[in-house]
Amino acid sequence: MRRTKDGKGIQALAILFFLLVVAFIVLPLASLFIKMEWGGLQGYLSAPLVVDALRLSFLTSAVSTLIVVITGTPVAYVNARFEYPAKDAIDTMIDLPVVIPPAVAGLALLMAFGRRGVLGQHLNALGIDLAFTTMAVIMAQVFVSSPFFIRQARTSFEDVDRAYEHAARTLGASPLKTFMYVTVPIAMNGLVSGAILSWARALGEFGATIMFAGNFEGRTQTMPLAIYTAMQGDIDASILLSIILVAISFIVIVAVKMLTRRGLIIAQD
Q1: Could you report how far apart the first and last alpha carbons of the chain are, in Å?
Q2: CA atoms within 13 Å, Cβ hemisphere of 69
Q3: Fewest CB atoms within 10 Å of the CB: 97, 168, 217, 245?
Q4: In this structure, are 118 and 241 located in the same domain?
Q5: Name one GO cellular component term (predicted).
């Protein structure tokens, strides 16, 4: 009898904490929708601050994700299949942007590519300025989002059964054709989910962007920066942009879960 009472008590306590955690997460997000003035939605969507931020965010995040996928896929494949000196150290460095504060990432980019930076001073001498430009936004996004794709892609490549690759090579396929027509298709779900996560991280980037690219409307002011700016004068515009980012984040998580589940089903089959 006592054990039964103890078990019920633990269960009730677990349910209580479960409800508290869910409420703590859901309430702030729901408050955005409750506080939004939906009657003026059309006016907010046509406001220059919102339009410019949306356009710039989707443009830069798309470009940065494309760069991450093109450059990160070979890196992930090499780390998944080959051993080389200082591999663990390099792999750790690739993951480092995930855990360092975004402001540190922005300052590091500024010290490297700013007008007086390690490399930036030489580029500046050639008439190339990167800091506080749209290109700086893309660079900041690539820096902070690339680990999300590379880590997921590496895991996907590691999960590919090499028997399929050996079979393709036995049939006369070159290493490149084997990679393109055997390895990549098998790992595609993981690559796509990694790209989606990378894009979402780029879309929501704030700290590194404001440090390295600044906050100039129409040039470097992405949605997170526009939210910060609008908070000082137009709270409804900042709420609208926040709702858009929340909706995108929700869709991203659902998409990644569906792709992951599909990948598991295929692997089991």
Answers
A1: 46
A2: 19
A3: 217
A4: yes
A5: plasma membrane
Q: Are residues 64 and 23 in the same domain?
A: no
Say whether both 104 and 206 belong to one domain: yes
Q: Are residues 101 and 23 in the same domain?
A: no
Question: pLDDT of 157-171, one tens digit each?
Answer: 999 988 998 999 888
For residue 149, name the pLDDT band (cuts at 50, 70, 90): very high
Q: Residues 73, 140: one domain?
A: yes
DSSP annotation string for 143-204? HHHHHHHHHHHHHHHHTS-HHHHHHHHHTT--HHHHIIIIIHHHHHHHHHHHHHHHHHHHHT
- The domain total for the chain is 2
Q: What is the DSSP letter of 114?
A: S
Sign of CA dihedral 120, 123, 124, 129: negative
> Would you mind telling me the total number of residues written for the chain in this entry?
269
* Residue 234 or 250, more confident: 250
Residue pair 147/70 in contact by the 8 Å Cβ criterion: no
132 Cβ neighbours under 8 A, 6+ residues apart: 212, 213, 214, 216, 220
pLDDT band per the 50, 70, 90 thresholds, residue 137: very high
Query: 24 and 57: one domain?
Result: no
Residues 30 and 82 in one domain: no
Instruction: Quote the domain boundaries for residue 16.
Output: 1-35
CATH number assigned to the domain comprising residue 221: 1.10.3720.10
Q: Rounded CA gap, 108 and 137, in Å?
A: 14
